[in-house]
C-alpha cells in the first residue's frame, strides 16, 4: 500500500508540473502570436505587406541618430512605401545631427514624395530637417524658425577663485582646448569661435535659401534667430501651408499618391532583430501583464540636452 501511495503522490506532482509547463507554453505561444501580429499588422513595420504612406516622428533634441537614419534608408528601399510624412516636433539640437538627418531625407525625397508636418515646434536643426521635405505644413500656432548656430560654454573661473582652486596647463599652442570653462576667453579665442559659427551659419542659411526658393538676402533677413507662428511662417515662405496630417495627405495626393492609403508609423526596432528586440520583449511583457521597464528616464526628463557637444542649432538649449 505504501508503494501505491507514493506512486499516487508522484503522479500528482507530475500532473502539476505538466499543467504548469503547458500553461507556460500556451502563454509564450500566445505572446509570440501577439508580437508577430503586432509586427506585421500594428507594430514597428505595420503594413510592410501592403502599400502605405510611411510616417516618421522626429521629436525632442536632435543628435546623430543612426537608428533614425537606417529607418529612413529602409523606407527609401521599401517598395510598399509610396510616400512619407515627417512628423516634426523638435527645438533642434546638434548641427551635425541635423545635417546627417537632412541629407538622408534628401536621398529619400529623391525617390518618394516627402512632406513635413510640424507639430508644436520645428526650430533650428528641427527646421533644417523640415526643409529637406518637398512640402511643409504647420499648425497656425506652431513655432517655426530660429535659424542659426551657436556655441555656449560656462565660465566657472569666478567660482574657482572663491574656492581657492587654480588651473595649471601646458599647451602646444595658445588656442588649443579653447574656449575653456576654467578661464575667461580672450579676443583671439572669441574670434576663432566666431569664425566657426559664421561658417556653419552661412551653410545653414544657404540650405534655407535653396530649399525655400529664396534669394540669399531674403533668407538672411529671416535668419536672425527669430521664431514665427505657423501663419507667420507661411507669409515668410518658411512653410507652404497651414494644416496637419490631413493637409499633408492632400498634398501627397497632388503628387499621384492615393489619399486612401493607410498612414503607418515606422518606429525604431531598437536593435537585435525582431525576435531579440526591446519591442518584442515589451510586447511579450505586456501580454503577460508585466510593467515596461525599458523607458529611459533621463531621456524622458530631457536631460540629454545638457550634454550636447559641438556646434548647436537649437532653440533655448
TrEMBL record:
EC category: hydrolase
Domain spans labelled Peptidase S49: 107-254
EC id: 3.4.21.-
Pfam families tied to this protein: Peptidase_S49
GO molecular function: peptidase activity
Top-rank taxon, per record: Bacteria
Keyword Transmembrane: yes
Membrane-spanning parts: 20-41
GO biological process: proteolysis
Sorted UniProt keywords: Hydrolase, Membrane, Protease, Serine protease, Transmembrane, Transmembrane helix
Family: Belongs to the peptidase S49 family.
UniProt name for this protein: Protease-4
